[in-house]
Fold each of these.
Amino acid sequence: MNSKEVVVSIFSTVFKVVLAIIIVMLVYKWSMTAYDYGQRVFNEPPVSAGSGRTVTFVVKEGETAKEIGANLEKNGLIRDAALFRIQEMLSAYKGKLKPGTYELNTSMKTEEMMMIMSMEAEEE
């Protein structure tokens, strides 16, 4: 084996080790992100602690959970509209959000907001 082959072999081995380390780091990062997101689906804390801020929120006729989530996020009631959509799909309130005007607070959890948006409209 000449010196050129040894250098190429060493370079190849180092490259493979570095590539393996990068792959492991990316898998770890993505796994932690997925785990955190999964935890938030079932245990998302309210946007603010304490008494929070009350917001008048309107659900229009025919709005989807995706659109409602985007509006909730825009109004500062939730942090992540995509997460709201997943939470709605996995909750007992799937497909039960009703059009209407609601008084929601930034100290409410997402499930509390869904409960209000699915029940209060029935009483009106």
Note: The first strand starts at residue 54 and ends at 59.
Amino acid sequence: MLTQRLGDYLQNDDKFIEDFLTIVGENPGSCDEVWFAGDYGFPPIEKHRESAAKIRQSAEKFRAAGLRVSLQISNTVGHGQYMSARDCSGLVYDGSAVEHMTGPDGSTADYCFCWNGENFRKYIVDMLKEYAKMKPYCVWIDDDLRATNHAPLQQGCFCDACIEKFNTKYGSAFNRKELVEAINFGDISWREKFVEFIRDGLYDFTYLMSKTVCDVSPDSYIGFQYCANGGYTGYGYDFIFDAMRKGSGKNPKSRPGGGAYNDHNPNEQLKKSFFISWQNSMLPDYVTEIRPEIENLPDVVYGKTPAGTCFETSIYLASGANAMSYAMVMNLFDPMQYHAKFFRDFARHRPYWERLVKANENTIQAG
């Protein structure tokens, strides 16, 4: 399965959709699925409602052309400070009761939020209900579902409510400074308890999101877009996949990745393939669809060549993937005629890629 992620500026553009479907039709096998994207940022729920309604209309055009339609939730807890460039007025305004993510030193992230916060969770639930009306094949949750790298914070969440919940759960009486001291320099059991606490909170939040989607769209799968984020919450994301499986009632899907945004230095693609192999090795057995993302960012014509994109596809499939997704048709100013040569190469390489996937399957079956 080859998937194209569509930029939110393009997914409702009639001329773009017409050109896209024409090029895909001229190159059979070059694309099987498209991913739409929910609004990036945290606008009022009414704005999400309007965007979701437009997406539903566009989705029918792709379905009528024989393409599968999925959806990316562009942000949950928030990517970082740069989200200030988008509309975040649904959560960030004077008097907002939303719970912001807090670092170990007590500093807060203006555009990232605590996954345990009830006000924040209600906003996310209301948003998901709108987008799930599209009945997507799979809902992909983006990689800000993590406890690290939320500029200007590196670790979270140490808000007052989280510290109180931690103390209640483990019978302690730490303030923020004392908790950080215990995690870093105290008995190892406190570090273990903190990892468990963070994982449990993210599990509950992920379960809530997965169940919300499938309550509205029972046939939808849930997928996780993620990077190799280190050991702050313990290695591996089995707890996220477990929550997705329980909340949706179906086996979740994996989109590993991170890095290699152009092909100026092909060694970056090899480096990323090692990250992907490591991520694949830590997946639960029930996660059987592995669909890395090839990120031709920042979406400019000098970012990545068709040859570089096809080579990258090949090495990721050789690293254990059995599907692929592309973030390349994302820019409002790139004509589809530029991308046509990518689709021609995808169609030409597809038989080779299918043999790679089959070889991997045979190797796994043989033990």
Note: The chain has a mean pLDDT of 93.
Amino acid sequence: MFNLALLIDNHDEDNDQNKKVILKSKLAKKVIARNNGKDAINYLTTNPDIPDIIFLDINMPIVDGCVFIHEFESLPEIIKDLSKIYILSSTKNDMYLQKLVEGNEIEGVVSKPLTPEICEGIKQ
């Protein structure tokens, strides 16, 4: 079980649902949500609690997931080493997402909303 999960999605309903699934499936003890990449980067750079796992939506206002990934790469090594990123997507077979995964430190693409089965797969 991870200590902390960070959800980055501009839809509060999705964050609420995903948080419930993460906690119920015991994927993480605590879940924090941010509504855009800018708020998430700010959280990562100002908070001592480093998330073990990050679920990132790509299409968001202010700072989207692609910009977040770019900015994440410039964060201190300890944050990058301890945080695994999964892209949340409603279209898992998107070629663009696959290229994004291949070119960056992304663990994979998971369908949204999260399900207990997806969480179980991540735990293994």
Note: The longest helix spans residues 12-24.
Amino acid sequence: MNDLKILALKNDSNKLRHDYESVYEPYFKELRNKNLKMLEIGIFEGGSAKTFRDYFSKGQIYCIDILEESVNTLQNEERIHPFKVDQGNREQLNKLMEEIGKVDII
């Protein structure tokens, strides 16, 4: 079992249902200890954002969701920055990107 899968299990990530962590791990392994920014589109219950936060020990995890209740699930999490943004709204996305700057992983 890879490290990303272990963390996904610990954080009850919905990504486990689709085995995404097996696909992500080879790409993310080299970046694991880098000071990076990641943007996740869609929060749901917050498990995958917590997984990425734990995996990228120096990373800042930015998350967007259209649902306020999803954004609220991550309000007090260290190194996780949730925003209420509609991914289909170019103006909102541009404003977000101006605020957070360049990201390394989307």
Note: The first helix runs from residue 3 to 10.
